[in-house]
Amino acid sequence: EVQLVESGGGLVQAGGSLRLSCAASGLTFDDYGIGWFRQAPGKEREGVSCIRSSDGTTYYTNSVKGRFTISSDNAKNTVYLQMNSLKPEDTAVYYCNTIRGGLNYWGRGTQVTVSP
Questions:
Q1: Which alpha helices (DSSP H) does the chain contain, by range?
Q2: How far apart are CA 20 and CA 96, in angstroms?
């Protein structure tokens, strides 16, 4: 069974940093990739970043380019999202996601709150 568990969220002031972790089990890091999404109150869930661990290919949504960095530790089956220069508009619940065998898997999310 595929499981994704996020951690590392918290409360931080604008300009601060956080590092989120997504620990994956029941799968192997391969060409399918793992991504981070976020959902702010009253807004739709949006894609933030993703990585294909087999070759390190990454993607970032425009609003986080230059501030967020996604990486993976294949030995630990863990994907990280380093978030720097955080802004109040980054406040959201951050979710880890992957698709395996046509099924969409989500973690429970971790809350990130950025105060002005």
A1: none
A2: 10
Which pLDDT value is given to residue 31? Answer: 66
Task: Mark the ranges of the chain whose per-residue pLDDT is less than 50.
Answer: none
Please give the Cα distance from 79 to 71 (Å, whole number): 6
Q: How many residues does the chain have?
A: 116
How many helices and strands (H and E) does the chain possess? 0, 11
The DSSP symbol for 23 reads: E
- β-sheet bridge partners, residue 82: 19, 69
pLDDT, tens digit (0-9, with 9 covering 90-100), for 26-58: 887 776 789 999 999 999 999 999 999 888 899
